[in-house]
Structure formats: structure tokens, C-alpha cells
Amino acid sequence: MPIIQQRSLSIYTLFGAIQSALWFFVLPSLIKPYWAKISDNYTNQQAEVLLWAIGAPYMLLYMLVAALPPYFILRNVEWVQQYKISRDPWPWLSSSKKQSNRDSKNDNDAAAKQRQLFWKQTYKSILLDFFGLFIFIPTLVYIKTIVWPTHVMSFSMEDFPTPSIQSASTLLSMGIIHEFGFYWTHRLMHMYPSLYKYHKVHHEYKQNNVLSAQHFHPIDFLISIALPAILTTEIVRPHGFAQFQFGLWLLTANFDDHLGYAFPWAAVRWFPWSAGTDAHEYHHSVNMGCYGSKLSLWDWVFRTDNVYSEWRKKRWSLVD
Hints:
By secondary structure, the protein is mostly helical. The protein is built from 12 helices and no strands. Helix 3 (55-73) packs parallel to helix 9 (240-257) and helix 7 crosses helix 8.
């Protein structure tokens, strides 16, 4: 079966759209019966801190459902592996067989060193992920509710958002504003050495896997991740559920950015102006351009995707 490009019109486009429709139309009705427990048992401040704690369990769920199958279970299924972006083998799957000749021995030594570095990096990622998701994010949100006590979002059942043009416009506004904030904070982290020394921790991954999604220095996380999120909530002032819904979208896009596979059925890649998974993979591999994440809009506006576009054309001309 020929490979289908991500963001090209195909049957997979419909599958991606269906996933998004479930997120927009079905998720509210699934969550609403349980939302009263939050509004009744917690203050708005406590509920907002609890809301941002979804990152850890959702990352675990994403790894089990979306990442582990192509990484391990389906690693020998060509139909799946054709969507792998990097041509380099996964470091945990590199060959360790002993060979007799010198060249093969050098290859084996290089592969062993690569595996050793990978597991060392994985251990660091787990520590950073744990710190960020369980300690740093809840602490930042708590500080935010103390600094701006009048800006704590509503968790009331009375104004619980249901699928409508208004809720769609809220989510769309959050997406555009957040992406603008992320684009510029991310770009600034690359422009100035005083900032890049923190951002380079994230770029320790040249070949992405899902663990790299939250592999950040705390200062980098504060500037390029937390600041756009706070900016978005302060401008849009969404209901707590809208923030929850948008948060799931952000996390899905972030994990997909670092998955290492450009699957055409991805829920966050089927619509106009969506950024391709390979755009962020390209950014990691060359350390330039493609400063957006979920949308290609601002890279297109500010012309920071030109080199990536040429790279993509050459890549697909070789595939074709």
C-alpha cells in the first residue's frame, strides 16, 4: 500500500476528523455528569490546580495506546513503520550482534554506545517528566491563583459549555492565541544564547520519541510552555471545562509532535493550517525554523518554514 502523506486528503482525513468530532461533541456529555463533583467538592482554586494535573495520567495513557505499539509491538509491521520520520533505527532496537570483522565491530561499538546514551537520556527524561508534571506545573498553577485570585476560572455547572458556535469560537481563539505565544517564546529561546542554554536541554533529542515531549529545563518550561498557557487563559478567560478540553488537545499535539511517526490519521493533523509531525522532527534534527507546534500558521506568516518546505519536497520526491 502506498504511503499517505500526513495532511493530504484521504480516508485517513475522515478518521482524524471523526476523532476531533468526538472530542468536541461527545466529550462534554461524557464529562458533565462527573463535573458536579468537582464544582461541589473543591474551591475554584483547588479545582484549577487539579485540572492541570491531567498531564501525567494522560501522558501514560498516550504512551500505552499510541506510542508503545509502533515502538515495540508493531515494530516489524512495514505498513506502520513506513510512517516513521527518521531513517535512523530506534536506539533501543539497534543491533547488538557480535561480528568478526573490524568494520562490524566498530558498528557494534557505536550501536552499544548509542544504546547506553539513550538509556541515560531516558532516565533523565523520566525525572524531568515527573518533576514537571507532578511538581512544577501544579506549583505554577497554584502560584498563579494566588497572584491573580480574581482570575480563577469558573467550574460552575450553571455555565458548563456545551457544543455550540460559542464554545467552538472559544477553543479556536485559545488555539490561535496559544500558538502565537508559543511561536514567539520558542523562537526567542533560539535567538538568544542566554535563553538557548536552557532550551538546548529539550534539543538533546535529535530523533524524537514521546519521552522528549516533556524533556525541558524548568526555566525553558516556564518561558515557552507556561507563559503562552497563562497568556491564553488570561485573554480568553475560559470555563474550566473548556480549559480541560483545550488542555487535552495541547497534550495530544505535543505528544504527537514528538512521536516520531507522521501518521495521516492523527487527530491533530487533518485540518488546514495544522502543522505536520515531521515539521517538529525537522526542527529537532537541524535546530532551526518551524517554531510553531500545533499550527503552521505563524511559521507561514513569518516565513520561518521555507527551509523545511524545501526539505519536505525533496523527501517526498525520493519516496515517490
